[in-house]
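S1.2 Input.
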Amino acid sequence: MKFRLSAMMAMIMIAMTASAQALTLEGKVLDEQGEPLPFVNVVLLSLPDSAYVQGTVTDDQGVFNLSTSKHGDLLKVSSIGYETQYVTPSQNQTIVLKEETVMLGEVVVKSTLPKTRIKGDAMRTTVEGTILEKAGTISDALARIPMLEAEREGGVKVLGRGDAEVYINGRRVLDTNELSRLRSDQIEHVDVIQNPGARYAASTKAVVRIQLKKAQGDGFSFQDNVAWMYQYDHTFTNNLDINYRTGGLDITASLWAGRYAHKGFQENDLTYLMGPDHYRSFTTQETSNIWKGWSPQLQVNYMVNENHSFGAFYKYDRHPSGEMKSFFHTNNYENDVPTEHSDSRIWQKDSFSKHIFNAYYNGKAGQLGIDLNVDGLFDDTKTPGSTTEQTSPSVTEEPLTRTIESNTNSGNKFWATKLVLSYPVWQGNLSVGGEYSHNHRTDAYSFTASESVPVKATDNKIDESSTAAFIEYGRRFGRVFAQVGLRYEHLTNDYYNFGQREDEVCRNYGDWFPSAVIAVPVC
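S1.3 Output.
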């Protein structure tokens, strides 16, 4: 047994060492005339699910250099105004992108390409009046903007930085599904901030700010989007938007409803050798997942004049039922002799409700800029489930049955507020502000099992409060933008397990975070 364990550990270590070796991919992206293309997104994906691995953008000579320790099978190369290409990665490859055109009937429309430039601490891409207006949803447009990768689940990544905080008209997006319900032709411009300054939390990796165009015209309007897909089962979504505008008042009511269904089948056949013995494990897995949901929301914006605007947003997410079923069948062999057979059945149901709220004010008192946001998020999730496993030493013997019934209940009550004051000082801009947030989270896991299992029931409560203050100054020197800032954060975290406070887990600390940014146009 010691020999077998040692051999297995050696195999694992070799595999880990091989996978940890860094891979560097270099190449160049050109247009059809052979000219280098700057700001092209080059993203490494893994198959078969096209999951994001690593990404970068080309420099002003169209050259990209991508280093990763993870495995990737496909390069996605995309740029505004060009057709997206998927190519097999190789060293020193040259990729030629074809110009993209938009077909309307038999008429070919070539729109103006958007411009990307440095604007303060951000890289700004103009969308209004460009081909990006025709992209579809906001997520579709973001996927074509330099440095950005839009995920299917609604999240946004900044290449080389990771997950980004997303803001729409200065309001932080707490639910990424909101991006899929807005259209690309509503965008004025998008700012990508790779090095967030002191006004953002120290843990923030990157920021994406989306500025929408001011809606035109008065009266009622509506839009309904329907999507249907069949892949082993039916998936259906519908989103209805009703809008009313008059003067500076803009009211939008929306209702989204949908059903998602997915089925999957997977086979794994593993064979390995240990000295003179060989072992084989053959596993099949069948999974089905179905859920239904609906989500009404209401948004009110009122622009008093160019110096004063305020509004509120409320959304209710209801997911009344979701069910996942999975079946595992495993046969193990030693030197072609059956040693174990097992059948596992996993069932899990989930339901949740979520309330999201935001209120904001953006205005000026003389030269003093005021930006105030108040956010709230309240959710409750219930997840019952069960697992049944039948195991026998061989396919001919009577199986041993083990069962476990479980239930998970979790909830959040989250409030946050942020105030930023800005004032022009010494041909630059001085900003000061503060943030406060509080979250009350509960998690309870209970179960019953036919025999002892290596898990424990839990009943946790967490009360966490965070306070922050910052000061930041930015100024332009010709083509160079410089910004310095200082931020202080204090966190208090109280942890309770079955009603008892656990002091060794609780936290209470503060820290200072200086920041400095210098932005220079590269072309």
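S1.4 Remarks. Residues 346 and 387 are 5 Å apart (CA to CA).
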